[in-house]
Amino acid sequence: MQPKFVEFNTKDGLTLPGLLYGGKDDKSVVIYLHGNGSTSVFYSNSKNQILADVLSKKNISVLYFNNRGAHIIKRMRVKGKKEKQNFGMAYEKIKECIFDIDSAVTFLKKQGYKKIYLAGASTGANKICVYNFYNPKNSIEKYILLCGGDDVGIYYKMLGKARFNKILTEAKKKIKAGQGEDIVKEMLPEAVFSHTGFYDMANPDGDYNIFPFVEVLFGVNLSTKPLFRHFKSIKKPSLVVYGSEDEYAFGNVPKLVEILKTHQPDFDYKIIRGADHGFAGKEKKLAKIITDWI
């Protein structure tokens, strides 16, 4: 199945590119949200194809698209602005995923799709929770959350308490001083973030902190707001999938799944044995689980 290159516009003036895999008679479609970092849907066609081929047997299309968090730093033109603006993981604010997802939904409805499912891997799973939290009366049929991660906890463990708090505090000051787009030099070369991007990602009380596993597993008090509040707000049928060898799961995938079950016992949960965070080598197994569940 050859994908079709597509583009659609967000309400805040971005044009996002994507690949649509599907048959002309398909009435159902899966929107697939990628994770952060250097991710781009245009570098993994063979991987995209696996899910697309399995879904096609049930006459379900799939849309992969680059959201504003694709790549680490990406300069993009915003409608009405003379100069290109900074986007990519280094500058992303997760709540803006609402613009991206809504634009994809609008585009697909115009193509004639009647049922739309939303899948997200890694940060994509976090974005599903954020989207639902602020827009619960959306037109998505079901959610598929793949390997949702605790980025706040990951950077807290990586940087250590003192350094984590120092960088977070400095980022807040830089944003207030109008210097939010400056790069956090103290984190180089470990990671590339603007002060705005890091604060949005690492603020324990922010929208990025969807899966605060470190706080539960290690008894670390970071948040002042209720834990898992976004995740608990979901009322739609949802599938949650992790790989047993997920390298960002703090060595205990079964425990993470049990934590999630305490907040959403009616969701469907799967652990793919031998799979890592990206499900490398297990893509066919994942595709079958997703397709059978839909």
Question: Which features would summarize this protein structure in a list?
Answer:
globular, 10 helices, alpha/beta, single chain, 294 residues, Rossmann fold, eight-stranded mixed beta sheet, 10 strands, 35% helix, two-stranded antiparallel sheet
SSE map:
Elements: E1 4-9, E2 15-21, E3 28-33, H1 45-56, E4 60-65, E5 74-76, E6 85-87, H2 97-110, E7 115-121, H3 123-134, E8 143-146, H4 151-159, H5 161-176, H6 195-202, H7 213-217, H8 229-232, E9 238-243, H9 253-263, E10 268-272, H10 283-293
Parallel strand pairs: 3-4, 3-7, 7-8, 8-9, 9-10
Antiparallel strand pairs: 1-2, 2-4, 5-6
- Cα-atom radius of gyration: 19 Å
Helix content: 25-40%
Portion in strands: 15-25%
Helix segment tally: 10
Query: In sequence order, what are the helices and strands, one letter per element?
Result: EEEHEEEHEHEHHHHHEHEH
Q: Which class do the helix and strand fractions yield?
A: alpha/beta
In the CATH scheme, what's the topology name? Rossmann fold
Shape: globular
Identify low-pLDDT runs. none
How many domain regions? 1
**Beta strands, count:** 10
Sheet with most strands: 8 strands, mixed
Give the end-to-end Cα distance, rounded to a whole number of Å. Answer: 20 Å
Strand order of the largest sheet: 1-2-4-3-7-8-9-10
CATH superfamily: Alpha/Beta hydrolase fold, catalytic domain
Could you say what the CATH architecture is? 3-Layer(aba) Sandwich
- Report mean pLDDT, rounded to a whole number: 96
